[in-house]
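Late entry, evening session. Most of the bench is empty. Finally got around to the prediction I had been postponing all week. Sequence below, unchanged from the version circulated by S.P.
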Amino acid sequence: MPNPIDLMFNKQRRAALGLLLSHPTERFYVREISRLTGVAAGSLHRELRLLYKAGLLVRQHNGNNVYYQADTSSQLFPELSAIFHKTNDLRDNLRDAIMSLGERVAAAFIFYPRVNGKVELNDCVNLFVIGSVSEDEVEVALKDVADSHKLKICLEIMRANEFSTRMDQGDSFVTEVMQGQKLFVKGFS
């Protein structure tokens, strides 16, 4: 079965979006995007300009360099980011790493925190883990994934009973996470 992203976006656009959505707090100049994605700079200029005009990217000029960054204020950002995470190797790699921890992990999901109704971004992929594992164990399990995707993975780990208690008490953080956009890696889905 073909990858839906392959059908919706050409190779150049897919490569640029994949990089920029995976690193939403960073800005990249065109030659840097070319070097990191393997796509010729000439092709990238056209694709990046179209993505900018569509409201998916922010463009900044600094001297002769033009920098691009994912537009995190775009209403499509959380969904588009989730689609790219679902259809590239990241979700599968995270699932394999989490599964290596066995039944001690009840659920794990990527989440997109919101502040005042807007997605709050940092320089990492936010992963919520529910289970009886330590942060060190999860970090060791995820190290190869983080390294291979050149990503920082920020963890939120809770034991199942703490998670349930906080849900029952209407804890604002847990409630907001559960009501927000999530991409399940294990459990609940």
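Two things to note before I forget:
The beta strands are 28-29, 57-62, 65-70, 105-111, 114-115, 118-119, 124-131, 152-158, 182-186.
The two ends are 22 Å apart (CA to CA).
Will write this up properly tomorrow.
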